Amino acid sequence: MPKIEGFILVSDAPRLEHHWLRRLLVAAGWAFPAVTVEDYDAVSFAHFDGLALDFLYEKLERMGVPHRAGPDSARLASGWLKALQVCEQQKSG
């Protein structure tokens, strides 16, 4: 799976995502690669701290939780984007 090799797959429901990823790939006739789906919160806490982490979760709290995969993924990505922006602002002073 060249599109996901070398990337960390992250989800707020990693066990569920791993299950469905495996089922979809097997149904498509692909060999299931040795990939893991990491927990969004664990990866966020490992990557950010302080103000950036506060802004990440504040961004998520202000957005409603959609019940569709695409909008939910966009919501989680927007939290990370906000945290990255805060990190950059802190670096530039």
Describe this structure in words.
With 93 residues, the protein is mainly alpha-helical. Helices cover 63% and strands 6% of the residues. It folds into 2 domains: 1-41, no CATH class; 48-93. The chain has 4 helices and 2 strands; from the N terminus they run βαβααα. Strand 1, helix 1 and strand 2 form a beta-alpha-beta unit. The longest helix is centred in the last third of the chain and has 24 residues, at 69-92. It starts with 8 loop residues before the first strand and ends with a helix. The model has no long low-confidence stretch (mean pLDDT 89).
Describe the secondary-structure layout.
Elements: E1 9-11, H1 14-27, E2 37-39, H2 40-47, H3 50-62, H4 69-92
Parallel strand pairs: 1-2
Helix pairs in contact: 3-4
Short description:
This protein is mainly alpha-helical and 93 residues long. The chain has helices at 14-27, 40-47, 50-62, 69-92; strands spanning 9-11, 37-39. It has two domains: 1-41, no CATH class; 48-93.
Give the radius of gyration: 15 Å
Q: In sequence order, what are the helices and strands, one letter per element?
A: EHEHHH
Q: How much helix, percentage-wise, in residues?
A: 55-70%
Enumerate how many helices there are, as a single number. Answer: 4
- Integer count of domains: 2
